[in-house]
Amino acid sequence: MMRALLKFNALLAHSWALSWCLYRLHGICLIGSPREEIWYFAYGANMHSSTFRQWRGMCPREWRPGRVRGYRLRFNLKTPPRGIDIYANLSADPAAEVWGVLYRITRRDLVCLGATEGVPWWRYRPLSLDAEDLSGTTLPAVAYVAQGDEDDCKPSLRYLTLPSCGRARERTAYLKIIFSS
Length: 181
Hints:
By secondary structure, the protein is of the alpha+beta class. It has one domain (2-180): Hypothetical upf0131 protein ytfp (Roll). It contains 6 helices and 5 strands, in the order ααβαββαββαα. 31% of the residues are buried.
C-alpha cells in the first residue's frame, strides 16, 4: 500500500498545480515559484550522495556541509506496519546541533524529493529553518521533520551500511553524525 502511494505521489509531484492542491489538502502551503532555488538540509540517509542523487533522483546545483543549531538527531520513526526500519528525524533541543549536507535545489525538486519521502501523506513535513555552512554563513533552508515516537531506537542497519559506498571523507563525516546522536 505504501509503495503504491509513493508511486502515485511521484506522478503528482511532476505537476506543480496538482502538488499545490494536494499539499493544501494536507495543510501544507507550497510557496514560491517551482523554479526558485532553495537550500535543503539533509541529515539522514539523504546526506549520502548516492542515496540523494540516484535513489531520490536529485541533481543539486550545489552542495556543502552544514549544520542546524537548536535541533538534535533522533532515530524515533518506525515504518508501518511492522516497525522494523527506523528513520532519522530532527527534534527541537536548544542546546544541540545537527550536522548534515546542504543541497541547493529548486522548489519543484523539493516536491519531487518529498514524494520519495511520503510527503504529504506520511509523517514528514517541511520545516523552514536557518542552517550554517562551514564558513559560518547563515542560509535559509528546508528540512523534513516528523512527530516521532517518545523513545529513540538504534539506527537501522541501512543507516550504518550507507557510508560503505561513499568516498572516505564522506564516510567519516556521516559516521560521526550517526554515532554522535
